[in-house]
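Protein fold
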Amino acid sequence: MITRRRFASLAAAAGAGLLTASATRARAADGPKLNDDGLYEEPFFIQSFLDLGEDLAAATQRGRRFAIMWELKGCPYCKETHFVNFADPAIRDFVSGHFDILQLNLIGAREVTDFDGKAMEERELARRWGIRFTPTFMFFPETPEAVGGRPGNEAEVARMPGYFKPPHFLAMFHYVEDKAYEQGDFRGYLKRFLAG
């Protein structure tokens, strides 16, 4: 026989299960989707004509920072970045609220125009900039004037090569947003960030 108390606790558990399932479906609905290149895209990634100077200028105009995420089809750590790091609401909200992120394919063939005006395929740009790991995030100065017509690898203010666990990942985005690279390296900033 089911008592009222037992019935109430079962009903509450069922309701909590429905809420959890609903939240999971909501993340799946607005979460990363596979694109034609086999890369996961976040809904907040920017769509671009792949002229990096224009992308930086647009981000600056909106009061945001510009970053590039390099990925590769089948990369397990790229997938983890999307399904673990960006699944964390605190990370997703901070990154999407402060950064314009352009996704590039390490072996892609789309034509990209570097900050210095040279146009080349994504894979050539990756070689030119020394991208060896995926995912790799590159962060750029606040304004096109600060880039000064240099190629991206000479103009970047910070780089996150490879996968970073969520706390370190979020710390890197704060490091760039706070312009802490002007005062010191990421390691010292990370120590202070994690300490609280």
User: Anything to note?
Assistant: The two ends are 52 Å apart (CA to CA).
